[in-house]
Amino acid sequence: MKLESLVFAVAGMFLGLVAGWLIGSQRPAAPGAAVVQNAPPMPAAAPAASSPAALDEAEAARYKALADRQPGDAAPRVSLGNLYFDAERYDEAVQWYQEALDVDPDNADVSTDLGVSYYYLNQPDRALAQFERSLAIDPSHTKTMLNEGIVLAFGKQDLDGAARAWQRVVDLAPQSPEGQAARRALDSMRSAHPTLGGGTGSAN
Length: 204
Known about the structure:
By secondary structure, this protein is mainly alpha-helical. It is 54% helix and 5% strand.
């Protein structure tokens, strides 16, 4: 699924309750991407709820030629990362997102996309470390915090940590799409686990 800006939804199971995920970052300068995750206890390499987009080889070749001609331009590298991410070729997505960050190291959106790619490669620790870099760039980057909660919950089984991450999203941007998704996740998780930490509860 592609949108021009933020992309995600809540639509699956979370510990027996509704709270699945589409995760991906803002991509205002290039095609967006998101991958459906059915919320198993560990990351799944191949999300079950949608088929990967077929890689457009011609488009990839065009962006690679642009990247070769424009070594100081992050945009074609971001576009290549997005193409490979959509095709669930996460190793190659990592390569191009990293190249984009080498050119534009302060891009929190691309840093978060890189972290999400690590998650789908079953590398939750690397994903979390990358999200820390995203938040060092932009401490209020709520998409990163939302994804951090997903990885803590599904990749590390750290429900208290996930609750804290999602509560920060609710506190920072309660009416945003991220805030609404984080609130639903918190409500579902606390219904099943009333003793969880992470804050005082959802905001209105």
